Amino acid sequence: MKSTSACCDNIARLKQELDTADAVVIGAGSGLSTSAGFTYTGERFQKYFGDFIAKYGFRDMYSGGFYPFDSLEEHWAYWSRYIYINRYLDAPKPVYQELLKLVQGKDYFVLTTNVDHCFQKAGFDKPRLFYTQGDYGLWQCSRPCHQKTYDNETIVKKMVAEQKDRKISSELIPCCPVCGAPMSMNLRTDDTFVEDAGWHAAARRFGGISKSCGFPAAHSAGSRQPAGAAGRAACTPVRRECKPRRAGKHPKKPPYLRSFSQASNKPLI
Questions:
Q1: Helices (H), 57-94
Q2: DSSP string computed for 165-196
Q3: Closest CA to 214 of 26, 32, 31, 29
Q4: Residue 245: which residues within 8 A CB-CB, separation 6 or more?
Q5: Residue 17: exposed, middle, or buried by beta-carbon count in 10 A (0-12, 13-18, 19+)?
Q6: % of the chain surpassing 70 pLDDT
Q7: What's the rounded Cα separation, in Å, for the pair 46 and 57?
Q8: pTM of the model
Q9: Residue 68 near residue 259 (C-beta atoms within 8 A)
């Protein structure tokens, strides 16, 4: 077992590095949001998904998100709650705000697999963020027929407010405004993930300040540029370089939408 003095030494060293650094690169995973109170099990899960737990026996929010519900009405009843509490509610603890204080006034950049928008809500500058795996606040065509994403806040809040018996109204089912197929989450679960213009802009910003070591390239060789990794988890998909895909050429829908026929030709917007 490590002694408390060893832990204190590490904290003191980290503080010294941050105080003297010219630039900071932050790598953040799901554990950071967990420490901020965004837990996917236990009391919080029971509070918002008690009816789904009673019917399906879900043990955690994450696994419930992959359940093959019988209808899109039930699928989006579950997911609208999921999105609402993890994207549009604030985290219970000020972990992200405290992290921002540590890098305030410095040249920093955040590379994160988190999709809950906590960095932006805490006040981190958007041009300094690259959230590689998507955003709970965005939808995309499930095929996808085109490389564009859509904000979902207004419709998600309406779904949450109006759903009954674990179902939303059929009128609220989101459909692609181009081809009419069901919309899906803009999350990297398989090769249908849409990397839209905003995603590529963030990737270019990150590429512009990094080299093979991952540190900002804009600083001199003698500058001090520490990188920190916060809250890493083992369940995050990894992006691999591949040849660009052409819109409309994907062989399958995301797993949780394959069982549904085209729900409607009613466009999302």
A1: 61-64, 72-83
A2: TTB--GGG--B-TTT-PBEEEEE-SSTT----
A3: 26
A4: 191
A5: middle
A6: 77
A7: 11
A8: 0.81
A9: yes
